[in-house]
Design a protein that fits this description.
With 374 residues, the chain is mostly helical. The protein has helices spanning 5-13, 22-25, 28-40, 46-60, 63-77, 82-86, 92-167, 175-211, 215-220, 226-246, 251-260, 264-280, 284-287, 295-305, 310-314, 316-373. The chain folds into two domains: 19-90; 120-374, no CATH class. Helices cover 82% and strands 0% of the residues. The longest helix has 76 residues, at 92-167. It is elongated and about 100 Å long. Residues 1-21 have low confidence and may be disordered.
Length: 374
C-alpha cells in the first residue's frame, strides 16, 4: 500500500491523541451553548431543532455547530435515538446522563438538565482558570528575578572580578557579589534540567493526576496541587451523582454509570465506595468517605440524610455539591494567596540581592579609584 507523504502528514495532523474523538474538539462550553440553543427548539422535535441550529449556524458561520447538527439529524433520520446520535460529539458523561434523564423526564427535560450540568461544569473550570491566572504575574516577577541574578552572577560579577585582578589591588568583592555568583551559576546550570523536568511533568500531568491511585496518592492529595485536583473531582462527582439519584437511578447503578466514564483515579474511589456498600452494608455517607470528599462535606451530607423532609434527602447530594464548590473556592483562594505571598517574597529577595550586588560593585570601583590615587 503506497501512501503519499502529503497524505501521511494530513493524517498525522488530524490524528486524535486523546482518544475522545470529536468530543475532545467540542469543548464543554460549546456543548453547553449547543444544548441550550437546542432546548429552545425542542418543542418542534429534535429534527426541527437540528434544522434551526443548521440555519442559524450557516448565517453566523459557526461551521462546527452546523456539522454536529447535521450528524445528529442524519442519525435521527436513520432511526437512532438522540443519546446515540450525540455519542460522536458529546462527552461520555453527558451522553450517559442524558440517557438516564431521558427515561425520567423525556428529551426536552433531559436537554434542560444537561444544560444545568454543563453550566455547573463551566463554573468549576472558570474557578480553576481564575486561580491560575492570579499566579501568572507573580510567576513572571519570580522568573525575572531569577534571570537578573543569573545575569549578574554569570556576567557582571565575573567581569568585575577580572577587572579587580587586572588592576592588581588588595581589594575583594563583598558577600553580595559572592552570593550572586553562586546563585547565578547554580541557576544557569540548573535551567536545562529544570526545563526538562517541567516539560516532562507537563506531558505526564494528565497521566499522573488521572491514573495514579492508591494509598500513596491519598497522602499526596493532602498537598498542592493534588489537593485542588481532588476537590474539583469531588465537586463533579457529587453533582453528577446527585443528578442521577434525583432522577430515580439506584445508588449502586448510579456509581457504576459514573465509573464507566472515569479514569483510574476516580474508579479507585468509586469501586471502594461500591464495595463498602455491597460487602459491609455501609450507609452512603460513610461509604463515600474514601479520601476524595472532604470531612466537612461528608458531615453536611450526614445531617441532610438524617432530615425528616424527603425533599431535603432527595437533593442532599446536589446540595453538598454546591456547598463543596463554595468550600473549594475559599480553599483555592487561601492557597493562591499563600503562593502569591511566597512568590512576592522570593522576588523581593532577588531584587534586594541585585541592589546589594550593584552597591557592592559600585563600592569596589570607589575603593579601586581611591587606592590608585594614593
Amino acid at each position: 500500500m503506497n501512501i503519499k507523504p502529503l497524505e501521511l502528514l494530513k493524517k498525522l495532523a488530524t490524528y486524535d491523541v486523546t482518544g475522545k474523538g470529536n468530543a475532545a474538539k467540542f469543548s464543554e462550553n460549546q456543548q453547553l451553548e449547543f444544548l441550550m440553543y437546542f432546548s429552545h427548539w425542542m418543542f418542534a422535535g429534535p429534527i426541527k431543532a437540528c434544522d434551526a441550529i443548521i440555519m442559524s449556524g450557516k448565517n453566523q458561520k459557526r461551521d462546527q455547530e452546523v456539522e454536529i447538527a447535521q450528524r445528529i439529524k442524519q442519525s435521527l433520520i436513520r432511526g437512532e435515538s438522540l443519546p446515540v446520535a450525540m455519542e460522536q460529539d458529546f462527552s461520555k458523561s453527558v451522553v450517559s446522563l442524558f440517557r438516564i434523564a431521558q427515561a425520567a423526564k423525556g428529551e426536552n427535560g433531559a436537554i434542560q438538565m444537561l444544560s444545568a450540568y454543563l453550566e455547573h461544569e463551566g463554573k468549576v473550570k472558570a474557578l480553576k482558570s481564575a486561580q491560575v491566572k492570579k499566579l501568572l504575574y507573580p510567576g513572571v516577577l519570580v522568573l525575572s528575578g531569577f534571570a537578573a541574578i543569573t545575569f549578574f552572577g554569570t556576567h557582571l560579577v565575573p567581569e568585575m572580578a577580572v577587572y579587580v585582578e587586572m588592576m592588581q589591588v588588595p581589594i575583594t568583592l563583598g558577600w553580595p557579589s559572592v552570593i550572586s555568583s553562586l546563585l547565578g551559576t547554580t541557576l544557569l546550570y540548573a535551567v536545562p534540567f529544570l526545563g526538562l523536568a517541567a516539560a516532562g511533568l507537563f506531558i505526564a500531568k494528565d497521566h499522573i493526576f488521572n491514573n495514579w491511585k492508591g494509598e500513596e496518592r491519598n497522602v499526596a492529595d493532602n498537598y498542592y496541587p493534588f489537593t485542588m485536583f481532588r476537590a474539583i473531582k469531588a465537586i463533579k462527582l457529587l453533582k453528577y451523582f446527585g443528578m442521577l439519584l434525583e432522577h430515580g437511578t439506584p445508588t449502586q447503578q448510579a456509581l457504576i454509570e459514573i465509573e464507566r466514564t472515569e479514569r483510574p483515579y476516580m474508579k479507585y474511589h468509586l469501586e471502594l465506595c461500591r464495595s463498602r456498600m455491597e460487602q459491609v452494608g455501609m450507609p452512603l455517607n460513610l461509604a463515600l468517605d474514601t479520601g476524595l470528599i472532604s470531612k466537612e462535606t461528608l458531615y453536611r451530607l450526614t445531617l441532610l440524610l438524617e432530615s425528616k423532609d424527603n425533599e431535603v434527602k432527595k437533593t442532599a447530594i446536589i446540595n453538598c455539591a454546591d456547598a463543596a464548590f463554595t468550600e473549594t473556592e475559599r480553599q483555592m483562594q487561601r492557597t493562591v494567596r499563600r503562593l502569591i505571598v511566597s512568590m512576592l517574597l522570593t522576588f523581593a529577595g532577588c531584587f534586594a540581592l541585585v541592589v546589594l550586588t550593584l552597591g557592592d560593585i559600585y563600592g569596589t570601583f570607589i575603593q579601586i579609584s581611591n587606592f590608585l590615587r594614593q
